[in-house]
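User: Fold this, then the next.

Assistant: Folding the first:
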Amino acid sequence: MRPRGWRDGLALAAWLLGAAFPLIAQTEGSLGVGASVVRYDGFLTSSAFVFAPAVRFDSPRLSLAGLGSWTVFETGHGVIQGSAAGSWLAGSSGSWRLELSGSAGASQYAGRSSAAHVLGGARLHVFGAGITRGGWIGVNTGASGETSGAPVEVTMAGWAMRKRLALLGSATRTWLGRVGYVDLVGAMRWSGPHLELQVSVGARPWARDPVDERDVVAIAYGEISAAVPVNRWMALSLAGGRYPSDPVRHSLGAAYLSAGLRVRTARAAPPSVPLQTTGVLRGRPLPTEKDAPPLEVTGAEERRILRVRARDLASVEVMGDFTDWLPVKLARVAPDRWEIALVIPAGVHRVTIRHDGGPWSAPGGTRLERTEFGEEVGILVVP
């Protein structure tokens, strides 16, 4: 399982053919535990333990799902994330289906910072002969936390199934304020009696930088996961790869490797459905700010002093990989000096700073690194 919460968190594929395959309504619950190693874009590698419960209900026309995760990093800090969604096949006429859906997600970092989104959408599905191939066109919109303007996602996709193999290709155009990008994804799933294998590859050939409004470098990504059933109720899983950032759902891109165990309530058989790739909530992107106050580091490894010199401020906070990306407040020790003592090992670290509750930015005096959507972090070398 991935070291992040769940984005839409739902396999909407079951909703594509719900009316076409008259399944008996069924509810399935599951509980996953696992360990992950993850490197978020611009940050150092971290290990984590993931605890992820899930529940879903499927009937011929209605599907509901809720997923959550509790991630504990090696520093001991925790992140709670979750999402819920529903989909209803509203009507049909021969070879087409109309699907109405909604989803919501939220995350909270150690009871302090949080991010949330609420989305609603519609899809028009068209099925080929024998319902072994088809496609859809759909749109999603809603609210995305503190971001100005409503996000809009438009997707076109096609799929095909043959016995145990399902294939999917999709193209998605996203608008979110000054951010814009295109994602092209191809995926396959093979479901056998002793192995379920899923592979996806994608590319973001175009993206607009929200800071200086320029096109940024294209990126490629991909993931692979395998599940091996132990019995009717238990399966071992292994997954890895890289996924891109998702500003709509407040997530950073990352590379990861994870292994885990999932226990579920037994059911007769999973529905035969076309594959649709799923995504999850991830870490919250960092906003930017210019002219941030400089950050000084002194002291030994067991007691580093972080110091900021600035006047006319009410508060100063820093966060970085050495705080597990949780904000910590500096104490005012003089009218123009703020300090905090932390344990920071020698090496290269990523850090951000903010004052008076404003936006986060790279501290002055650090080397800047910018993610594909313009978020800035500072590179801090600690001897």
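Now the next one, as you asked:
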Amino acid sequence: MGRVVMLAPAPRDVPISVRASLLLGGPLSFFGWVFFGFGMIFVLAFGLPENVAAIFWSLQPQQTATGIATDSRSTGASENRRKVYENRFSFTAADGRIHHGRSYATGTEVQAGDPVTVEYPAASPTHATIQGMRRTTFGPAVLLVTIFPGLGLIFVLFGIVQGSRACYLLANGRLAMGTKKSKERTNAQINRQYVYRMTFEFTGDDGQTYQASANTVDTSVLEDEAQEALVFDPQRPTRAVMLDSLPGSPEFDDTGNIQPKGLRAWLGAVVLPALVMTGLGYYVWTQW
């Protein structure tokens, strides 16, 4: 993006395509959606929703009853190279009705006709389990698979917060030119390239000197001019963004108005989040 010599009076219109690029198109958001999307595949494959429900029911007041094992089969899953078995049973609950259930255990299978002790929530006998077994294929340790989607979600939310701030400053901020003060390499990497934190100084409306910082892999975008354009909040000059560091590098016309992005940039920002959320929504729709 070339140097911005003027901005239209605030508040300025920020086209929806530019908002999409700022909210969803940055590298942090991209990696966040990748981590979240792939992580959720494992979360759903390992039955995390069922595990959460199982934990909920296990915390409710329990009752016991004597039941009969009806069947046992291998689930095809394993833990520590030991098969996980699905053990089916039936029992008569305190309400006098016969209920059927299934429990899961690693390396343990029951024989049809064997007596078993059944434990069930008093409020919901349909969530019964054989005492000492579990209600889901995998145990609570499966919660560890939430680390990657959780980390991805943090990245996504952080990117959205940063993008929201950038949208506000583009709409309401004041233009200034910043002079580079420092360039420091961080420990973070993107595609095996180090991220640099670059800091610029600028003068606010009150004549005081303030700083604006940007993290970037491609430092050349903030080093191609003697001074770099930025926008800051006139009410809080410490809130500022470097224009050339923004996702999609917003462009301006001769009157200082923000130009909408083309279809390619628009799709590049929304396709990945749309695919992830559509897939997750489809799973929820089909399961519940």
